[in-house]
Design a protein that fits this description.
- With 278 residues, this protein is of the alpha+beta class.
- The chain has five helices and 16 strands.
- Helices cover 18% and strands 37% of the residues.
- The strands form four sheets. It has a five-stranded antiparallel beta sheet with strand order 1-2-5-4-3. Strands 9, 10, 11, 15 and 16 form a five-stranded antiparallel beta sheet that branches.
- α1 crosses α2.
- It starts with 5 loop residues before the first helix and ends with a helix.
């Protein structure tokens, strides 16, 4: 189903989902990672558009209020994924957080990965107005950036509730379609750490098959090293980043902390790579 306009899409798809999940930042409930999952379609400016599940609620809500007031909340722009909709500069300035994203793309008929799939609405009923991808899990290409401060590396902590495991990893993120890995590296470090990089070097590519929160995962990780242009980052023991609109602390920890018997450092094989002198 394609909704006649953006406000109709918001009322039928987004607002019920947001009411059912008031603590969620994004439509899919995740904090990070890209998604080609499609949650709905609507018409705007003579085109059909698809909304991906990694879109944040805040810019959607800002756009909806503006549209209900008779304004056109969007401008079209070319991106690595194709033609997309973004908030007008005036509306973008109203966002409270530094990083809140719209992932709304022009939909060429017959080229939509989420076409014809159903989504559970609040209460469990399925509705054709909210299609979603049910495809098999896909391989995820990503980048990881290793920053060094003497014998320390910059890492963030995570918790897998299924494994009851606290683990660590350097900052990174998913590679978008049409984007080279170094482009992803620089974009992600700007988005997460508000940082510019120098001396970027690709160390190795690591393939990693694992489970996270009970779900199978398969990643191809491009392992980079880089240096912060702003030397003040090295004077801070902890750096407060932004991951999907949520605070995300990363801190300097000794590489030796992740030796066998210590907490895991992911992706698997990263400790061995770094401790070998690379």
């Amino acid at each position: 189903m394609i909704h006649d306009d953006f406000v109709s899409f918001m009322r039928a798809v987004v607002l019920p989902r947001q009411a059912a999940n008031p603590d969620h930042v994004r439509l899919d409930g995740a904090l990070t990672g890209g998604s080609w999952e499609v949650v709905g379609r609507f018409m705007h400016g003579g085109r059909a558009w698809v909304v991906h599940a990694d879109t944040h609620y805040e810019p959607l809500s800002i756009a909806c209020v503006a549209a209900e007031a008779g304004m056109d909340p969007f401008v079209e722009q070319e991106t690595a994924r194709g033609l997309s909709l973004a908030l007008t500069p005036e509306l973008k300035a109203r966002q409270r957080a530094r990083h809140k994203y719209l992932y709304i793309y022009s939909w060429p008929q017959g080229d939509d990965p989420g076409a014809g799939r159903a989504l559970s609405a609040p209460g469990g009923a399925e509705t054709a107005a909210q299609p979603v991808s049910t495809a098999e899990p896909r391989i995820r290409p990503k980048i990881v950036c290793v920053f060094r401060r003497g014998d320390e590396i910059l890492v963030g902590g995570h918790y897998d509730r299924v494994k009851d495991e606290t683990f660590y990893g350097p900052p990174g993120g998913g590679i978008e379609f049409g984007e080279y890995s170094e482009e992803t590296l620089r974009r992600e470090m700007r988005e997460e750490l508000d940082a510019e990089l120098a001396d970027v070097t690709l160390l190795r590519v690591i393939e990693n098959v694992f489970t996270h929160q009970g779900r199978p995962k398969h990643e191809i990780a491009f392992i980079f090293t880089a240096r912060f242009v702003d030397e003040s980052y090295y004077a801070r023991d902890e750096i407060m980043g932004d991951e999907g609109g949520e605070p995300y602390p990363v801190k300097w920890m000794p590489l030796a902390h992740f030796a066998p018997g210590g907490p895991p450092l992911y992706p698997t094989g990263l400790y061995q790579l770094l401790s070998s002198g690379m």
